[in-house]
Predict the 3D structure of the following.
Amino acid sequence: MIASFNGFHIDSIKLEDSKSINVLMVSNADRFKRYFPGTLAQNLTEELSEAFAKTKVAQFQNKEEYLFTIKEETSGHIIGLVYIKELDWVKKQGELAYCMDVDYGGKGIVCKSVKALSDHAFESLGLETLQIIVHKDNIPSVKVASNNNFKWIETLSNEFTPTGERPLDMELYELYK
């Protein structure tokens, strides 16, 4: 376990998490379809979620990408996911991306998770720069970045293209060890 707070804990993805990830993604499909279309598409059925979990566990073990789950301690249900992805081991850099069940938003859970995983990335993984890339209209995610001392760096033109939409400019925030 990476961290525990307010009845929640953060841990690395496990094979047995697949069913709970499926429930999280399907029950929040409308919320996740714009900024997490790939993760959503890979978790639309329990069978897809099993394959997703296997892939993510292997990527974790191979230090290619790290996926962490945020779980309720009492029920064990997954209420959010946090990735450390786009790893560049030469630059010692990675990007944080996160999604949360709509019923748990606005409670500071993602902020605390990003803080814990930033500390983990610097202390245990050896990263020196973390990035968060967010659309300016995604105010909760902008607040997560600023509340964790990530500094705005620049606007990335046409950085992300949601399914069926035009490319969007995104804001780059960084945090240094």
The chain has a mean pLDDT of 97. The longest strand covers residues 78-88.
